Amino acid sequence: MDKEERKTINQGQEDEMEVYGYNLCRWKLALVSLGVVCTGGVLLLFLYWMPEWRVKATCVRAAVKDCEVVLLRTTDEFRKWFCAKIRFLSVETNPFSSPKSVVNKMSIGHAVLLIENPAEENRHEMNKYSPTQSQQIRYFTHHSVKYFWNDSLHNFDFLKGLDEGVSCTSIYEKHSAGLTKGMHAYRKLLYGINEISVKVPSVFKLLIKEVLNPFYIFQLFSIILWCTNEYYYYAIAIVIMSVISIVSSLYSIRKHYVTLHDMVATHSTVRVTVCRGSEELEEIFSTDLVPGDIMVIPLNGIVMPCDAVLISGTCIVNESMLTGESVPVTKTNLPNPSVDIKGAGNEIYSPETHKRHTLFCGTTVIQTRFYTGELVKAVVVRTGFSTSKGQLVRSILYPKPTDFKLYRDAYLFLLCLVAVAAIGFIYTIVNSILNEVEVKEIIVESLDIITITVPPALPAAMTAGIVYAQRRLKKVGIFCISPQRINICGQLNLICFDKTGTLTEDGLDLWGIQRVENTRFLLPETNVCNKMLVKSQFVACMATCHSLTKIEGVLSGDPLDLKMFEAIGWILQEATEEETALHNQIMPTVVRPPKQLLPEFTPTANQEMELFELPANYEIGIVRQFPFSSALQRMSVVTKVLWDKKMDAYMKGAPEVIASLCKPDTVPADFEKVLEKYTKEGFRVIALAHRKLESKLTWHKVQNVNRDTIENNMDFLGLIVMQNKLKQETPAVLAALHNADIRTVMVTGDNMLTALSVARDCGMILPQDKVIIAEALPPKDGKVAKINWHYADTVSQCSSSSAIDSEAIPVKLAHDSLEDLRVTRYHFAMNGKSFSVIQEHFQDLVPKLMLHGTVFARMAPDQKTQLVEALQNVDYYVGMCGDGANDCGALKRAHGGISLSELEASVASPFTSKTPSISCVPNLIREGRAALITSFCVFKFMALYSIIQYFSVTLLYSILSNLGDFQFLFIDLAIILVVVFTMSLNPAWKELVAQKPPSGLISGTLLCSVLSQIIICIGFQSLGFFWVRQQPWYEQWHPQSDACNTTGGLYWNSSHSDNVTEHDEHNIQNYENTTVFFISSFQYLIVAIAFSKGKPFRQPCYKNYSVCTKSVAYNYAYHCCCQCPCVFPGGGLN
Question: Which domain holds residue 322?
């Protein structure tokens, strides 16, 4: 039964949850209803705040399979509860097929839920008018995802599309014909409408949700209580403040929803063309698309309404919405394993693995290319919230809670205040009973002590510092979409930097080339655009092996490709639609050199023209392109020279990868030495290779060939050397971070040696420091995984002499504290492959390597995210700074992610810098530290304010007195609010210091500070209270007394002659009240100044002119009051 009662969904994923089944219980529901009536709705509020209480109070446990309500609990550290109602979906199934199998298929990865082949489809069509039986499918919805019951798994699971468990072969064989209308209708019933629906809640709904917040309920309770105690003015003031707070909160929340709604609405409903079973085309709304539909991509482009995989044609796509990279990307059709010469067999399709063939939702298709009048087609694989954009929107709609020690400690501190309030509550009741006070007065005064001890204005006060910090960040060009993260940024002690575009300049400059002839490197050449080289295969490779395209007549593409193509001065020409329709073998893209570079040449009769003997008007056509893959670290093209019989294959990419795919006898013996020389100097090196293809490879075969068939047995051509300069501000910023004892780490997709060179140039690794490279090898041929350690200066000669015994690694790997890091003179470096192997096979080493790892090269986007998580697991507060390209996951996962790109991808990053410079990082940390210290100051001040007022009221309760309405009003509005909002104005300190701000409220220093101030304040109030009673002019209060009116001045008597008989029923006008009021008022100001900490995290208090002006004004006002006493309207002489 236990197994039936508890299930786990999304196992092993970020949103893993436990599921508990419940059925509604009528007698429990009746009891709860009675409790709600008896408590005046208070019980209902608690049930609204606590979903687990609500379910447990009204339901009984049941098997998950048969339950009516599910209770969900996240398995992360927050253990949050949610509840959802089970719903039923009626599906009409074919009586000749098993309904159970239909339901089972839903969660096994089959996108085709009814029929997977045409024969079954025809049989279904024949029997569609036969009697049918209804199948009820149970499901619930959580965070915009539907979870269906799966009998085969005995668990709930979300409905998958073609993105899981479907092979590449299957996409062509089973899903390339399109869906019939019957299949489409059935799938639409299950998958629902294809939309990323961000509903903007009505103002009324938002208002109800906001007002039912525990804080506002507490305020409502306080206001009712104050009105009962005749504190009308104070209650009205708090109501006005609450209304302003609610309105501003509603405005910001609604604005956030509207912005998000507008972002996803751009592609919510467009008309698209789909293919039906028999080559029939149908135009439908994009909201009707389902996985398995064949979508025709229009020639003039479209904003993709779903995730789809290309099965014919090529697309030029702008993916800036997802990656932050505005460079157009070429997408080619998915390789068809069944027609490949070297097929991929049963390779499973994955949108991540095959992203170069996948069109993602929200990205813009700029152009399409097709051949022989064929349509550009794509199979829909995911729709709605399952798409890449849908998942991004879900992460924004339902963010993971931020765990920060300050907030945890704040709740503990509030609990302590509640305990203090409970003591005051009991004391007031006992004291009032002993003095025979009326029951109504006892209830009001004892509850009033609670509202005094737990200040209702605390959340607003805590927010003030963050709001001011956000405003200051905006002035320096840093925009924030998650204000609560500003405080967390004050704790950052490690920053990860992307390299290209972040530490270095965005663009690359061509430094030169080094060609290979007869297995030897020639001398480096800086001028590539000359007549001597125009006929070379090296230049032909530079001219063709790229992903450039013309958009509205302008050459666009990867900056590296652009620099490379511009260096040779060639011309790129793309075929028009009319030209494509005329020929079966028209080249989609043609490149040719300018005429002035071509030498005069006349071929002899019957002379076969090779690449080195080209006619004067020769052109090279790009027949097939295999786009750059970060996983493979290379790209290649198949080309054909005009009039040539054979095709050529060209490849470029990471030198180590290219060399491994070339014939060994074509790679120079000193290849590693030359490569090491360039990379150590900080150059980015790209290798080129060429191969003449067999004549049997026709144009048609090339369109379906697998890239592995082409990318082997190549001839090594040489190296292209690119220069990537450091940004001017990089060394100074990194030096400032190091001086502040903030660790810096480089995370890049570039070559290891290039990354190490940049790390040394920018000061991340000091000249005298040693670098140890960890090269992890996965298990192979029965051998276990192992790690080879060697120094960076011997990376190219991994001989036994350069290797380091793991036992003799000169860095102590068992550091227990981060302080040890300062004396360490060693850094670890590794590439993405080694990082993955270490994470999988050497998990015990991961924390130790994280403490000293400085350079992580060849890192894929998901590995960057894993690295951030690994660093967080060893108690680092991690910041991530990237230019948005491939950094989105890491930016989002870090404690403080700051994007240097203003594109839509920055919606995933808490901070975005207007200027693409890492100088924003110290600014963010400085403002974060100032905001954090401000939060501590404000919290301590509000706690002291509560305790001071609590003790004032407790003292006055002992003589059955209290503060007057206008006294409370003056303290809370004229003093407290003004103090809170002005003490938060202290700007950040001008530079970063090595000293770290405290991370929590519960620390010895802070507690000592608060407790000592409490003792001083209580001591002086008690002294004043008892001292005034010892004075010879002291008179004890009674209802008819005017004890404080001791002046005999004519002005006083004449102006107050009508008030002589006024009764003071609440015992407010007495000496004790005036004494306690004056002393406490001065104490608020003294405590504010004592807690307004300045250097080294904030500017000193005397530079905060608002605080200085306020202090002088209050002191002058109090001086006047002492010299010339006056009566506040509503009671209370001051």
Answer: 271-397
